[in-house]
Amino acid sequence: MTDLRLGVLGYGMRGTLARTAHRPGNGARVTAVADPDAGSRKRAAEAFDGAATTPDHREVVADPGIDAVLVLTPDHTHADLTCAALRAGKAVFVEKPLDITVERCDEILRTAHKTGSRLYVGHNMRHMPVIRLMRDIITRGEIGAVKTVWVRHFVGYGGDFYFKDWHAERRHTTGLLLQKAAHDIDVLHWLAGGWAARVQALGDLMVYGDLPHRREPGVPKTDDWYTADGHWPPASQRDLNPVIDVEDVSLVNMRLDNGVLAAYQQCHFTPDYWRNYTVIGDAGRLENLGDGPGAEVKVWTSGVSGHRADADTTYRVPDAESAAGHGGADPLLIDEFLRFARSGGRTDTSPVAARMAVAAGVRATESLRDGGTPRDIPPLDPALVRYFADGQPAR
Fold it and tell me: Where is the Gfo/Idh/MocA-like oxidoreductase N-terminal domain (predicted)?
């Protein structure tokens, strides 16, 4: 099988995805990388021997020798770069979230529909073993029909990952309730079988906004910006982003279009880093304790008064085949994209679902910055919904 020739736009933190996709002789190889940072281009040249590097994304997009493009740049650039690649006839992998506004997400979907170029959004959590296990339990009907979903996200490395670079600024992310929560909102939608129709949120910048140790504007992150202990506690953080204007704690209530009620909570100044899902149906409930290999998903289906730690059924989250990226989810994500770029067809990720997750995050952010007033989610053109549900048939 001839290798797909891949162009990469952006070689920063998510450059791991490009390295995962680089499989010379086994289906795909990275042949060109664009990044405005000279250091990133040097690292890319070392990682992909023989690949061309350039500071100008247009050179990669216009290259007739490129079959597919991976957009791994900061969120606010996704729409412009993705649409350019789609118009050039490339299959496109765009990292989550799709973009930072509903309008720009819709522009991407319309462009994919108009050009017929294949669009794939990197919502890798749909391939995480713990998420697949919970979805399988729900699909089998073990807890009955889903009625409510509660998600708690403890972001122990929040200070390192989200308050030392562009993630800390509204102009690049809208807010962490979009940038970070869009991933869990997408999974919540997937488990509940519906999309948020109305949201209400509260949030605040409670801790990181008061920390004084900021870098000067234009000074890059230090080499030790991340450590295994997360620079704990938050007050020990140094060299934070010069501008911090996104919330570090947020709470969202949602009513989905199928009647399911859901809640999502996110905190960036907690010492632990994991996600806790509780899904309650009309015949039982499930909850994950831990979210990596070896963690457990417990299911309660018999009546009980008071707390009972021993569930009716306990499932062990299976070990991933690869330790690379999000518990092995990233290789599975790339496998699906490469298959889709080559052959088309339906995928477990969904551009429409990606747009709906962003829309919920945008409207929830508007709500929390307006005192918690409820917001309705804008609908998507039904023709686009049908097109992507059909697997983006060739046009």
Answer: 5-123
- Cα 238 from Cα 255, distance rounded (Å): 40
Cis peptide before 318 (omega within 30 of 0): no
pTM of the model: 0.96
CA dist 203 and 94 (Å) reads 28
CATH superfamily, domain 126-328, is Dihydrodipicolinate Reductase; domain 2 (3.30.360.10)
Q: For residues 183 and 353, what is the distance between their CA atoms, to the nearest angstrom?
A: 10
pLDDT tens digit sequence for 68-95: 999 999 999 999 999 999 999 999 999 9
Which is the CATH superfamily of the domain at 4-124+335-349+380-389?
NAD(P)-binding Rossmann-like Domain (3.40.50.720)
* CB contact set of 295 (below 8 Å; sequence gap of 6+): 130, 288, 289, 316, 317
Give the pLDDT mean for 214-219: 95
pLDDT computed for residue 259 by the predictor? 98
46: left (phi over 0), alpha (psi -120 to 50) or beta: alpha
